[in-house]
Amino acid sequence: MTATTLAPAKSRAPFSAMTPVRYLFALLIVGVTVAPLLFVILGGFRTNAQINTDPAGLPSPWVFSNYANILASESFWRFLGNSALISISSTAIAVGLGSMAAFALSRYRFKGREALYSMFTIGLLFPLGVAILPVYLLLRQLHLLESWVGVALPQAAFALPVTIIILRPFMAAIPTEIEDAAVVDGATRLGFFWRILLPLSRPALVTVSVLAFITSWNGYLLPLLVFNDPANFTLPLGVATFQSQYAQDTASILAFTALSIVPALVFFIFAERHIVGGLTGSVKG
Amino acid sequence: MSTTTAVVTPDVTTAAGSPSPQGPPRRRSHLRKRLELLLLLGPATVLFVAFVFFPLVAASYYSLFDWNGFGPLTRFVGFDNYAKALGDPLFQGAIGHNLFIVIASLVVQLPLSIALALLLNGKIRGRTGLRLLVFAPYVLSEAVTAVIWLSLLQPNGVVDGLLESVGLGGLVQLWLADQSVVMFTIFAVVTWKYIGFGIILFLAGLQGVPEELREAAQIDGATGWQTTRLIVLPLLGPTIRIWVFLSIIGSLQLFDLVWIMTLGGPAGASTTMASYLIDRGFRRYEFGFGSAVAIILFVICFVFALFYQRFALRRDTQGAITGRVE
């Protein structure tokens, strides 16, 4: 209540009339975005019979077996583990190699620097779909089909453009005085990169890591083509396959889906600031 | 040793500018710089060329052959694959479906997300939580999104049930099985997933609109709407242009959602360029033909991006083509 008495002092007449409308719309938006998620989560606590007779109802009684079955199934955990392994490796590769390249592209002068940078940036316009047939053939030749490496490597390659585009201006903006001081203190250029520039670039590194991780975690097309053996499936692939295999068992599908949302949402809550920062940061160039 | 390398700091690299009298150390430091560059740039470049750049070149080569992906490339057909693709009504339909998503996004999602961002930008309690919730669908994979909506949209499912319970049972459709409805359904799901991204982007953009400008306008007697239209929207220009760019590129590449929800059906009514490409390439092993489709998709994206970069984005970003962020 105190807030409402204080507020009018700053923003006056036209706004106060809008306030109830604002809240109404805010509620509406939240309803539309959250209701489907709630339906999925709650649906997992119902039986198929409950869902069939009253699709939008609440669980009554609450059933825990759907979730219990999924949590007890080996495949869910395996999908989760595969996803984690692939996303973490792909992120590490993309950010590791990307930061090295961004360092060279931002703080060295050499012939062809801008051309090389352009090559990386143009990569943003190559959808994975365009490259997928030759990538598939290449992976087949390298015997990387059915291997997590076969997903992690191309995903890292496709994450390089965004990584470099965000890191390069960030690294370029770090004052040369710091570098000069380091050199005076006897640091080599690579020592400067490792011991000073990388720690200083931490905010940008976190942002690019988050972006690379999410992209890899959510990837569907590449795992779809690389993996035939369900033992290798990632979570998105697992969810989609589970859905088509158990099409009649809606309750289990909902429980499976709800559980697969959890890691994404938890990660998102921790990383939200960096996701938004990364997006808006890239907007400002 | 380390002092020698100091000569190679980036700003002094015009080595002629700082002539060191002794030849050998400089040459050695040059060599060292090259080695450093090789070490720093080599791995990223190799990875990028192998999985991004080379495949594009390879695809343009394969596209000239009738080839199933196995054995040698012998049946050269020139541009036949391109002609065949562009002449296929199914592919023409796919282009149309992508265009539909592009245009519907511009007409519906853009104004909607700006309006919602303006609303959420006002003083509201729990705004942070609200933003978090609105953004949640964006972090879900398209695969999970597709499965969620498959459950919601199944016949006699929640959506149908809700419509009936509010007396709109007449609106109930075969959401994904009716050729005339399916693209609208897919667009609705796309909107559900990506609207939060737009809202967050525009909220960030609104942070950049100085409060003083609005206040000044209000003191001059401008109504809220006038302030929004004449002050806020123009200042939001760069954000809008970025959104439009990302939205169009994303719409042209639509795949996961469609593939899981409909496989491009019924009867090709929701086929997109990417789903057509995967269907031809990987389900029918038409690698040459699929490559031609890939190149067409690439050219469409590339030409659009080039023009957009040149005419719309240049003012904002000076060369940085920004984020494919899915």
From TrEMBL, chain A:
InterPro entries with a match to the protein in the record: MetI-like, MetI-like_sf
Keyword Membrane: yes
Keyword set, alphabetical order: Cell membrane, Membrane, Transmembrane, Transmembrane helix, Transport
Superkingdom in the source lineage: Bacteria
GO cellular component, one term: plasma membrane
Matches recorded under Pfam families: BPD_transp_1
Transmembrane segments: 21-45, 84-105, 117-139, 145-167, 204-227, 251-271
UniProt KW Cell cycle keyword: no
Topology in the lipid bilayer: Multi-pass membrane protein
Domain ABC transmembrane type-1: 80-271
Record-level GO BP terms: transmembrane transport
Location in the cell: Cell membrane
PANTHER family, per the entry: ABC TRANSPORTER PERMEASE PROTEIN MG189-RELATED, ABC TRANSPORTER PERMEASE PROTEIN MG189-RELATED-RELATED
Family: Belongs to the binding-protein-dependent transport system permease family.
Descriptive protein name: Sugar ABC transporter permease
From TrEMBL, chain B:
Keyword hit for S-adenosyl-L-methionine: no
Transmembrane stretches, start-end: 37-62, 99-120, 132-152, 181-204, 287-308
Entry keyword set: Cell membrane, Membrane, Transmembrane, Transmembrane helix, Transport
Bilayer topology term: Multi-pass membrane protein
Domain ABC transmembrane type-1: 95-308
Localization: Cell membrane
Gene Ontology biological process terms, A to Z: transmembrane transport
Compositional bias (Low complexity): 1-20
InterPro entries associated with the record: MetI-like (IPR000515), MetI-like_sf (IPR035906), UgpAE/MalFG_permease (IPR050809)
Pfam families linked: BPD_transp_1
Keyword Cell inner membrane appears in the UniProt entry: no
SUPFAM superfamilies, per the entry: MetI-like
Region described as Disordered: 1-28
Any one annotated GO CC term: plasma membrane
Major subcellular location class: membrane
Family: Belongs to the binding-protein-dependent transport system permease family.
Protein name: Sugar ABC transporter permease
Species in which this protein is naturally found: Conyzicola nivalis
